[in-house]
Amino acid sequence: MKITKQIIVFDTADLAAESTFWAGLLGGTVAAEDDWHTVLVDGEPRLGFQLAPNHVPPEWPDGVPQQIHLDLYVEDVRSAHDEAVSLCARLLKPAADLEATEGFQVYADPSGHPFCLCWG
Fold first, then answer.
1. Distance of CA 45 to CAs 7, 8, 19, 23, 76, Å?
2. How does pLDDT run across 51-60, given as a tens digit for each residue?
């Protein structure tokens, strides 16, 4: 099998909020259609967003399972945290020690999908 393109797709009830958030976080742009948005980074499709009016956000870790999540490795977690929150991410689980040589913090995007900012 030859895979010609690979893209991760998120279901969301709010295409604009979700795709704008991820475009901002990844430094990309949004290509919008009626019920589908694509985030392009350096002109390449990275993430897709499918309109799902009845989307139920995960309530991880204490509820509806997270279903899928992205780990984003960053050089400066404090700066990455500030940027993610400015784009409307919610911190779900802070790291025990931001000075540790490795670690992660768990966030939710505007549609409630968990993702981690990781370092180390």
1. 7, 10, 12, 11, 25
2. 999 998 888 7
- Domain segments of the chain as ranges: 1-55, 56-120
Closest of 30, 120, 14 to residue 72, by C-alpha: 120
- Residue spans of the chain under pLDDT 70: 1, 3-4
* Fold of the CATH domain 56-120: 2,3-Dihydroxybiphenyl 1,2-Dioxygenase; domain 1 (3.10.180)
Given CA atoms 16, 72, 81, 108 in this order, what sign does their dihedral have? positive
C-alpha 113/C-alpha 107 separation (Å) is 8
Token pair of 13 as six digits: 């009830």
Which residues are registered as beta bridge partners of 47?
8, 39
SS3 for 5-29, per residue?
Answer: CCCEEEEECCHHHHHHHHHHHHCCE
